[in-house]
């Protein structure tokens, strides 16, 4: 999941660099097992000529780069190093062969100004390989110890898939890290892929496609024939029909409930989400299909306690997908689960209008942490934007500074109450930690500039 938004206009499609269709299970309701490509057999490579990098203007630093265990890396240590390290995990890069390193661009000036060293890995694979990202990022920390010195504290942060990696590192290697900052993270893990499937099968049903004919894989027929017909029947690129309004309502409830900027979000992502069904449900890394929509509930209204006759009819008319039993393994396998079981302070950030990795990912994470009696170690902050990972330097730097203060002084920072539907639905939700003005958001809502 690449974090950079190249274009974002009201009512237009959202474009992501390196965007590659995500996987979905085979059609027919049951996710048949797939032969998983062995990542170790793919000829990934690092172009070492691209690894060297310059210091930012005005900063004196020592910089290191190279290849470690098949992964490229970059390390930067300011001359005024405070003895602490920040490991950065990048987002989804597609499935190409070249492995590339990305610095924490928006955080980098703040880190250097305040004496933090940072290190980033390319990982030794591409694809949605969170497991390898976890292993390679953790290994980079060990390399730093030998090349530079053992840090007094180590933090981990990352965007999107890198946020997923960050959350898993915080759970699997809690003793190695002091604080975690997942940003726009897939902290609901495989629930993201369930949502991509939900959106498409609900749209098919509302467009009049019978259950036995609904597709759950992205093939030429679906992309070139089925999707244009769905869009026409639902008014996706014009005035939404009644059925199109129903898809919009279901999408709102699946992605976090009534909240500010959802109108803009749906207009932005409504076409994009039809492209998120890939050819198999193992995402190239799991033991089988990970998508499970058997527990999805599709609702038009905000009454979560019951279903109307129309909602019951829709839920009965939509094809369901069953995940393979072997994908339920815990730990560093397939697409690792995020259980909310971290033992270190964590500040998590998300955009309220993101529908690529929906805001609901954060609600799932908060619910899991609460179920584990771990809610005191998780703070979630909502930023009023509809892009994916659409944060600015002030928002990221403030979140990291507050995390570091929490680690150092033991005082938990404030966050947003994301599990209270009334709070989330309020027109001012997300203003407390938003810095700067987005053109599609009424300026009067911004209390901080």
Describe this structure in words.
The chain is of the alpha/beta class. The chain has two domains: 19-36 and 190-328, no CATH class; 40-189 and 337-445, Alpha/Beta hydrolase fold, catalytic domain (Rossmann fold, 3-Layer(aba) Sandwich), CATH 3.40.50. It contains eleven helices and twelve strands. It has helices at residues 108-113, 130-147, 161-172, 191-206, 220-234, 242-254, 262-269, 309-317, 360-371, 393-409, 421-425, and strands at residues 5-7, 15-16, 45-46, 61-68, 71-78, 84-89, 98-99, 117-121, 153-159, 179-183, 346-351, 378-383. Strand 11 (346-351), helix 9 and strand 12 (378-383) form a beta-alpha-beta unit. The longest helix has 18 residues, at 130-147.
Short description:
This protein has helices spanning 108-113, 130-147, 161-172, 191-206, 220-234, 242-254, 262-269, 309-317, 360-371, 393-409, 421-425, and strands at 5-7, 15-16, 45-46, 61-68, 71-78, 84-89, 98-99, 117-121, 153-159, 179-183, 346-351, 378-383.
Query: What is the tally of beta strands?
Result: 12
Alpha-carbon distance between the two ends? 29 Å
Secondary-structure element order, N to C: EEEEEEEHEHEHEHHHHHEHEHH
Determine the CATH topology of the largest domain.
Rossmann fold
Q: Report the sheet with the most strands, covering strand number, pairing sense and barrel closure.
A: 8 strands, mixed
Shape category: globular
| Count of individual helical segments | 11
Q: Give the amount of beta strand, in percent.
A: 5-15%
Radius of gyration: 22 Å
Specify the CATH class of the largest domain: Alpha Beta
Provide the CATH architecture of the largest domain.
Answer: 3-Layer(aba) Sandwich
């Amino acid at each position: 999941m690449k974090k950079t938004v190249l274009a974002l206009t009201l009512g237009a499609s959202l474009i992501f660099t390196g965007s590659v269709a995500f996987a979905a299970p085979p059609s027919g309701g049951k996710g048949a097992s797939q032969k998983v490509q062995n990542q170790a057999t793919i000829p990934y490579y690092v172009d070492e000529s691209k690894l060297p990098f310059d210091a930012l203007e005005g900063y004196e630093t020592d910089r290191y780069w190279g290849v470690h265990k098949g992964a490229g890396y970059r390390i930067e240590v300011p001359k005024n190093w405070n003895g602490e390290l920040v490991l950065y995990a990048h987002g989804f890069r597609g499935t190409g062969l070249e492995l590339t390193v990305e610095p924490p661009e928006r955080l980098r000036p703040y880190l250097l100004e305040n004496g933090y060293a940072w290190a980033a890995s390319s990982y030794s694979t591409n694809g949605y390989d969170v497991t390898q990202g976890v292993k390679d990022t953790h290994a980079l920390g060990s390399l730093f110890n030998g090349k530079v010195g053992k840090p007094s504290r180590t933090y981990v942060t990352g965007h999107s898939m890198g946020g997923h990696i960050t959350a898993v590192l915080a759970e699997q290697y809690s003793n190695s890290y002091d604080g975690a900052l997942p940003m726009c993270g897939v902290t609901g893990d495989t629930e993201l892929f369930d949502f991509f499937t939900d959106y498409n099968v609900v749209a098919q049903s509302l467009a009049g496609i019978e259950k036995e004919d609904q597709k759950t894989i992205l093939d030429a027929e679906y992309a070139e024939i089925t999707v244009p017909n769905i869009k026409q029947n639902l008014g996706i690129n014009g005035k939404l029909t009644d059925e199109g309004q129903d898809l919009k309502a279901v999408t709102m409830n699946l992605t976090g409930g009534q909240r500010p900027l959802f109108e803009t979000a749906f207009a932005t992502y409504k076409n994009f989400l039809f492209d998120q069904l890939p050819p198999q449900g193992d995402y190239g890394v799991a033991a089988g299909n990970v998508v499970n929509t058997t527990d999805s509930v599709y609702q038009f209204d905000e009454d979560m306690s019951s279903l109307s006759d129309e909602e019951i009819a829709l839920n009965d008319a939509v094809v369901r997908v069953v995940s393979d039993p072997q994908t339920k393994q815990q730990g560093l396998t397939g697409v690792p689960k995020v259980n909310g079981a971290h033992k270190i302070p964590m500040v998590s950030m998300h955009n309220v209008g993101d529908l690529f990795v929906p805001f609901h990912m954060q609600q799932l994470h908060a619910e899991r942490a609460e179920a584990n009696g771990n809610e005191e170690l998780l703070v979630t902050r909502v930023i009023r934007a509809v892009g994916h990972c659409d944060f600015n330097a002030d928002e990221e730097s403030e979140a990291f500074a507050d995390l570091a203060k929490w680690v150092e002084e033991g005082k938990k920072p404030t966050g947003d109450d994301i599990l209270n539907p009334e709070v989330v639905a309020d027109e001012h939700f997300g203003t407390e930690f938003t810095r700067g003005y987005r053109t599609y958001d009424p300026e009067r809502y911004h209390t901080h500039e």
